[in-house]
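Model the whole thing, not chain by chain.
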Amino acid sequence: MIASGKGGTGKTTLTANLGVALGVLGRDVTILDGDLAMANLGIIMGMHKCEVSFLDVLTGKADVKDVIYENHGIKVVPTGFRFEDVHDVLSKVKRERVEEIVGEFLRQTELLLIDAPAGIADATIISIAAAREMLPVCNLRNG
Ligand SMILES: Nc1ncnc2c1ncn2[C@@H]1O[C@H](COP(=O)(O)OP(=O)(O)OP(=O)(O)O)[C@@H](O)[C@H]1O
Ligand SMILES: [Mg+2]
């Protein structure tokens, strides 16, 4: 889980670049967009047209295997933005279910990097429930 208290410190940029760099080094990497409320990892990876996303897995409309896309030599799990679905996920999805889903991602990859949202609001639950370790990101300019 790549996280920070403040927004805009570079979490998404680091997730994308670290993921691709590890891929170049021959590691089996998956990067996952855990920023449900403001998903943009897919956009940064040039994948804004993916119809099926992590949100569909959380809402039970798709399987894990349907949302793993190959791009830039690594696996990418984008999260689309649909207001109703984000609300649905945050109010209904249980931590145990998130852990189950993440377990499925982990079975098909060596390393899973999760781009977390800033702060500790509700939307962070996905990343917290999923993560084994945390990599904090800060910068000298804005924390
Ligand atoms: N190492 C860096 N050096 C300079 N600029 C950077 C660096 N990393 C990211 N940026 C720039 O900082 C801005 C925010 O980056 P990014 O979206 O990755 O942050 P974030 O922590 O994911 O933001 P959010 O909290 O909104 O999810 C972008 O304009 C990005 O290009
Ligand atoms: Mg981000």
